[in-house]
Amino acid sequence: MKNSTINLRDLLILVADPNSYLRRVINGMLRGFGANKVMEVDSATGLFQALSSQKVDILLCDMRLPPHGGLKLTRTIRRNADNENRTMPILLMSSDTSESTVKNARDAGANIVVAKPMSPSGLYDRLGWIVFNPRPFVDCATYFGPDRRFKIEGYPGGVGRRKGDKAIEVAAEEGPSLNQNDIDSLFSNARAGQD
Questions:
Q1: Among candidate residues 70, 146, 68, 77, the one with its CA nearest the CA of residue 106
Q2: Which CATH class is domain 12-146?
Q3: What SMART domains has UniProt attached to this entry (predicted)?
């Protein structure tokens, strides 16, 4: 994302957090990035009122938004086929960024998790990730949301589970392999700054 800028002007961004001070801080960061339409709500009730009355472009939602939390809200938004905001980017904010929290957010349909407390650069990077690395939406019986795979490094057994997944073929080995001493020598030269 180096040297790329995000144009947030005229996008409606909804910030849902129970803490009024944090909402103001996030609002200030977004306005500093050029956003001119930022709404704030402090509960799920306010969030659903905002979503029912207008098209929201980006949602930043606290993981613990009362009364049921951001995960349940994300699932509810994503699973409602009649909701015009169903495919909006959802960034869940949490002070717990453990692997299980991130996986739960991903499986609920969130685009990404933003660590709290957040810095302006951290928030900008997460927004940039969503803008410059969009993922297609997956719609199946148990999930609706952005593709949970950030990158494909190969499928188990060489075959993917989705209709659009292509088989990946690995080329046959060519030429002699390096022995461990040759590999160690390459790394020691690189550490010493030699070619």
A1: 146
A2: alpha beta
A3: REC (SM00448)
